[in-house]
Specification:
This protein is an all-alpha fold and 104 residues long. It is 75% helix and 0% strand.
């Protein structure tokens, strides 16, 4: 079976970030490389927009369209994150109330 796993990259990270990744690995029961790859893939569109804007600047072109798209997408992601956090909070509140047998 020939599966393209991609290119390997040597990566040096600060100790505090390594510790944080170790914590995530333990809780999620996943490999560090999986978590890092997933994070990079999540930010791939943003990284592409930043590259587009920087290339436009380098070519003495107006980067406004790329920066507008970046701002729009960033605000959209913040909204999605807020929704997820609200759902987590609601689930956690219900779980705590159920555990303590408190009315909501």
């Amino acid at each position: 079976m020939s599966v393209n796993q991609g290119r390997r990259v040597a990566l040096t990270i600060p100790d505090d970030l390594d510790h944080l990744l170790d914590r995530l690995c333990a809780v999620q029961k996943r490999k560090k490389t999986q978590i890092i790859t997933e994070l990079l893939k999540e930010f791939q569109p943003v990284l592409g927009q930043v590259a587009d804007a920087l290339e436009a600047i380098e070519q003495k072109k107006d980067p406004t369209q790329f920066l507008n798209a970046l701002s729009h997408d960033s605000l959209k992601k913040i909204g999605e994150l807020g929704q997820v956090m609200s759902e987590v909070h609601a689930l956690n509140t219900k779980k705590c109330a159920d555990t303590l047998e408190l009315p909501l």
